[in-house]
Amino acid sequence: MATTACFIIVSRNDIPIYEAEVGSAAKREDAAQLHQFILHAALDIVQDLAWTTSAMYLKAIDRFNDLVVSVYVTAGHILHIFRSNICTLLNPLYLPGSRIASSHFDTKVRALARKYL
Amino acid sequence: MVDPANTPLGRMLLEEITPVVMVLRTPLVEEACLKNGLTLVQMLKPFCVFNNIDVPVRTASDQPYRLQKFGLRLFYELDIRQPNLEVAKERLKQVINQAADKDLSELCSDLPQIDNALSISESEVLPSWFQFFNKELVHSVSFSDHEAFDHPVACLVVVSSKDDQPINRFVDLFNTKKLPSLLTNGAMDPKILKHYLLVHDKQDGPLEKATKILTEMRSTFGSDCQLLCINSSQDGVVEHQDYPWVLYKFEDLPSQPLRCFLNVEDFNEIKDLMQDLSTKHIIPYMEQKIRLLNQQVAATRKGFRNQIKNLWWRKGKDDVVDSPSGPTYTFNSIESQIRVLGDYAFMLRDYELALSNYRLISTDYKLDKAWKRYAGVQEMMGLAYFMSDQSRKDAEYCMENAFTTYLKVAPSSQQNATRCGLWWVEMLKARHQYKEAATVYFRVCTEEPLYSAVMLEQASYCYLLSRPPMLHKYGFHLVLSGDRYKKSDQVKHAIRTYRGAMSVYTGTTWSHIKDHVHFHIGQWYALLGLYDLAANHVMEVLACGHQSKKTQELFLRDFLQIVQKTGKTFEVSELQLPEINISSLRVIFEDHRTYASSAAASVKERIWVSLEEEMIPNLSTARTNWLELQSKLIPKKYKESNVCVAGEAVRVDIELKNPLQIPLPLSSVSLLCELSAVSDEMKSDASSSLVEIQDGESTSLIHRDVNFESSLFSLSDVDFSLAGGEKIVVQLTVTPRVEGILQIVGVKWKLSGSVVGFHKFDTNPMKKISRNRIQKAKHPHCDNLKFVVVKSVPKLEGVIHPLPKRAYTGDLRHLVLELKNKSEFAVKNLKMKISHPRFLNLGKRESLNLEFPACLEKKSSDQSAEHANLNDVSHALFLFPEDTIIHGETPLLWPLWFRAAVPGNISLYITIYYEMSDISSTMRFRTLRMHYNLQVLPSLDVSFLISPCPSRLQEFLVRMDVVNKTSSESFQIHQLSSVGNQWEISLLQPLIRGKSSTSEDEKSSHPRLQGTHLRLGTQGNNGPCFDIASSPLADFHLSERLYQEVLNKGDTNPVDFILISRPLKNDINPEVSEPPRLFSHHACHCSTATTSPISWLVDGPRTLYHNFSASFCEINLSMTICNTSHHVDYKSIPVESVSPFIWSGSSSTRVHLDPMSRTEIPLQVCVFSPGTYDLSSYVLHWNLLLSNDQENRDRSSSGTCQGYPYYLTVLQSD
Fold it and tell me: Which GO terms describe its biological process (chain A) (predicted)?
């Protein structure tokens, strides 16, 4: 099945610190911006839910047409938003607000994505 | 909880779900009304709404209640039919268009702020036309046959008194075939309440005729007849204070002030008529009908028996039904009657009764699979629940059920679903469930993009109004809405929504989102012809390194197109293309420090400072000196500023980076500068004029540049193209022409020949100054962008040619230093300092034109003059002769000697100090700094091994190892010289093996570099010998000595060697006539010391004949022992015999040797047969007799030396 997934890590104040487009589906030209829009909009729901539940993994909290948003909230309220069910454990220790630029991290994410998609 | 009737939905329902009155009229009636510019319905409409009617109503129950608010809806018979979808669509589009045209000015204003959107109330957030739009949308599904509240309750038949045979007209009107299909096709009971009205226009004549007709009518139709007199105003136009039609916006109402012949009497008459119609006819009729229907329903459907029967009957019907819209029900079917009962009850506010009947009928419809009717009933149930303020949950459930059911029977019921959705939304809104309302709006969206756009926009406002506000969703839905608006060509609306969305997204780092929004707003502004605004938005997305190449091209292309359409050169502050790397900003300027090349300018200041330390009188005092001179001219506040000289360029290096993957053509890249001439500055208040410059409008800046360019300063400009992702450091210069204050404001460039971008450097004056002070303390070479321009002073330009970039170690060259002074004023007192005197040496002026290397050849003539300044080499400061003055066109040429001393990458720093001959100049001196990098490759590796000569005392064997470390070069060893008079070097054999001898007696106090030379190589002794004692070689040798001394310390009697070699002619390309080159290798302080402090020599015959038949052979030898150390030694010489010869004489001798003395010991050896003997079988033991101050600890105090081989051949004599 051709799936597409966008994986974004969002730090506090809604700053995206990591973005990855993964998946096997053919890329649409506007996929990147559409995904950003959907994930950005989902932040409202996340902010509501994050304070009401102790669960870290919030599955399918929001949807837009056939795109489903799932969120993994870490203790420091850094949000790992992604569509489709990739379970990634990440070390949340990093400088607040700084972008994740490590290419190693990038390849890891993509490798994991291939495994589960 | 508010009263449901007072909520927007409640008000809407009270207005929309009211009895419909069908109006039939003759053309003459219409004519009479149109005198006032109104149709009959329009004229009556304002009087159909009753806010305080106070009618007692008794429906099914016996308990009467009073109705306060009531209303009627009047429609012509032609309008009572399902509206044409196309017409409705067109009308909705018009509504939207009108709304769009209204706020064009708003589109050009500043972007809205999200804080504002949050703080204003609901009514302000929502555009007012939404309500109107929604109403129109609801109206587009009126008069459906599946619901009864739109079915006419009564019929108003109107005939004018002018009509012929009015009685017949009344009958004709109702009998025509023009009646709505609802009445004719059996969907509703054609026997409806009729009310007959005779309209009399008073302008047409007296009332008598009308009253006559009325009595005739009464006799024919009964009591339901009335007379209405209009146009009573005789004298024409009447001005009405409270014109009742103002409140009603008829779309087709003429906009000009109405000519009105209606006076107050008429108003009252109409009012009375309508009230009479409602209270005396319609309401009682409905009450009566409700009671009647209720009885019927009770008889057939109420009770257990009826229910079972009904169920069974319907079950049996199941198989028959297969039409898509479900079965059709005629007006006299029980289902239709229940529905009518429900709707009548609803209209008379008996929600309980309505609900019970709706419930009843809904199960029936469900069983019959009459889905549209089922949905309609569910919808009404939801509304009834809401109006009776009953279970919220049930209300919502019913609405959702209705909505989904309508959608299920789509597409024919799409409009109904929309209406249902809108009511549902209003219901949620009334309960402040904005979040849920938003999702309903989202579900209402259809394929029709225009409606979807409006719905999505409304959804977005719901998100904004929800508590806490959901801004992310707000933005997203605005964008979705804008997208749909654009699809339906509503560009203005699209811009409006995107602008709203922008308020959410500004300040975020969601790059793709921002790009999308800005780019599209920009494009849409361009569609509207607002190119300036368009360009501003598209500009925001230009630096989109994260986008694909294709997108980048699209963005840039669109931007340039838009800019072109603006029809002027577009000037953009902080244009993102290319990126300006401010941290890379470097300002290179010359005050008293001048640079020969850009490489020299980039050298760290402290290197120069340490180099110039001794040469410059005193940097700080020098500065203050000329500043004091200048202080008359320059205000105090500029003392912190840098200084530059008029006529000399100030260079700025700045890195430009192309963030895109596509090439960027840049042209006219230049600096933005301000120069206020000293005279201006003095006249006006200095500070104010400067501030004005800094805060000035960008456009004016550019203009002023153009004006000034010819007079005050000149700028360099560069054209180039930046490839994708490329970084380029551009060098821009400004050359001030007059004295004053120069401020470098920023940089500007032209992108693709049409857009002028400029970037101002940080010019916050306060910050600048404070930072500047700190920097001053740290590095004086700070990036202050303000300069005091002083009067032009001479400036030396220097170049050394031809200084090689690469050289082999030992390469000795003759170079020329050329100094030019373009100014008319002369400079004097030149001094020069070189960081590496080992590499570079100042020659004599005389040697400038000498032929190299012939000039180095030894001449027999006098040498004394050449050693004049040898001592100066040590600190590498060269003073040019006092009479050296450079001015005008004639450059000064001075010889330089270059020698590549050690391999490696060498940075040579040369600084030349000079003073101005013109005393009035603001600078007393300047320095010229030159910097060269060169790579020195290893060539010959020369090492010397010196060991005592075993056969001679005080002589040493010198072994020279020469290794060619190059891969391609061949060298010819030319000459080896030992330096100084203490040593003499000679060839041991005609091989490359040297022998040196000491001559201890002479010790020169003056290090005159004389010595002995050894010609080596193929030419033997024929070739010229180079003079190591004259200028360049001697100087370099002294440098080498100084340098190598550090390495080899503590040798008592060292020797220096100079090896001179020449490269062999290049065999590969002999055509290239290279200048003759010379290599010199200097080995200094070669140690002659050995481990033992003694040297000895056994002397005696080597070969002798002896007749062994006569006796054994006794041979006398002598050993000379020499104490080479400076200490008192004691030595013992034990001699041991282990070989076929015997040491005779004393077997062990002890000798005391004074320092630097020698002694001779006789030795004897006995040989018994002829042969060759090695007499090395002896050992020397030595002990140092250390003096009281035992200084030489590192040396061992005693030791043993094995004897040298000494071969003695004894032959049998005859």
Answer: endoplasmic reticulum to Golgi vesicle-mediated transport
Q: Number of structural domains, chain B?
A: 4
Tell whether B534 is within 8 A of chain A (Cβ). Answer: no
The string of DSSP codes covering B123-191 is HHHS-THHHHHHHHHHHTTTT-TT-STTSEEEEEEEEETTSSSHHHHHHHHHHSTTS-HHHHTTSS-S-
Q: How many CB atoms within 10 Å of residue B305?
A: 8
Q: Is residue B429 part of a domain?
A: no
Same domain, B641 and B714: yes
List B residues 298-317 in contact with A (Cβ-Cβ < 8 A): none
Neighboring chain B residues of A32 at a CB cutoff of 8 Å: 512
Final residue in a domain of this structure, among B1064, B1086, B1108? B1086
Residues B1040, B1144, single domain; the answer is: no
Q: Which of B766, B790, B814 is the last residue in one of the domains?
A: B790
DSSP per-residue codes, B230-287: E---TTS----TT-TTTT---TTS-SSPPP----HHHHHHHHHHHHHIIIIIIHHHHH
Examine the domain organization and report whether B755 and B629 are in the same domain: yes
Q: How far is A115 from chain B (nearest CA, A)?
A: 26
Asked if B473 and A41 come within 8 Å (Cβ–Cβ), the reply is yes
Mean pLDDT, chain B cut into blocks of 10 residues (1214 residues total): 76 84 86 80 82 80 81 84 79 79 66 67 70 81 80 86 82 73 74 84 80 85 81 63 55 51 78 86 87 84 73 60 57 82 87 87 82 87 86 87 82 80 87 87 82 87 85 88 87 86 82 86 86 82 79 84 78 77 80 78 80 67 45 49 80 84 84 72 39 36 43 80 83 83 84 81 48 38 69 82 82 84 79 82 73 66 43 61 72 83 84 78 80 86 77 74 81 78 68 37 35 56 65 77 63 73 63 66 73 74 83 82 63 58 73 77 82 80 65 60 80 78
Which site among B439, B512, B551 would you substitute to test the A interface, given the most A Cβ atoms closer than 10 Å to its Cβ? B512
B508: closest chain A residue by CA: A15
Q: In which domain, by residue range, is B618 found? A: 579-790
SS3 category, B499: helix
Q: How far is A1 from chain B (nearest CA, A)?
A: 26
Domains of chain A and CATH, by start = 4-116 (3.30.450.70)
Mutate to test the interface with A, among B442, B505, B508, B510 (most CBs of A within 10 A): B510
